[in-house]
Amino acid sequence: MEYSKNIDNKWQKYWEDNNAFKIDVKDINDKYYCLVMFPYPSSELHVGHARNYVIGDAVARYKRMQGLNVLNPMGWDAFGLPAENQAIKNKIHPKTWTFKNIERITQQLKGWGIGYDWDREVTTCAPDYYKWTQWIFLKLYEKGLAYKKDAAVNWCESCMTVLANEQVINGKCERCSQDVQQRKLRQWFFKITDYADRLLDDIKLLEDWPVRVRSMQQNWIGRSEGVEIDFPVDGLDMNLTCFTTRVDTIYGATFLALSWDNAYIDELIKDAEDKDKIIDFIARTSNKPMSERLMDSFDKEGVFTGKYAFNPMTGKKVPIWIANYILSGYGTGAIMCVPAHDKRDYDFACKYDIPVVTVIKPAAGKNNESELFEDEGILVNSGDYSGLTSVQAKQKLIAYMSDKKIGSKKINYKLRDWLISRQRYWGAPIPIINCEVCGEVAVPEKDLPVRLPEDVEFLPTGQSPLTYVETFLNVKCPKCGRPAKRETDTMDTFVDSSWYFLRYISPDDDTKIFSKEDVNNWLPVDQYIGGVEHAILHLMYSRFIVKFLHDEKLISFSEPFKRLFTQGMIVKDGMKMSKSKGNVVAPDYIIDKYGADTMRLYILFMGPPEKDAQWHDAGLQGCWRFLQRGVRLVELVTEDEQSISKSAMPGDKELLRKMHMTIKDVTQDLDGNFQFNTAISRIMELVNHAHKCVAEKDVSFSVLAQVASNLFLLLAPFTPHISEEVNEVLGNKGSVFSSSWPVCDENAMAVSRVEIAVLVNGKVRDRFFVDVDASQEDVKSQALSLDKVKESLLGKTIKKCIYVKGKLLNIAI
Ligand code: ANZ
Ligand code: ZN
Question: What's the pTM?
Answer without folding.
Answer: 0.86
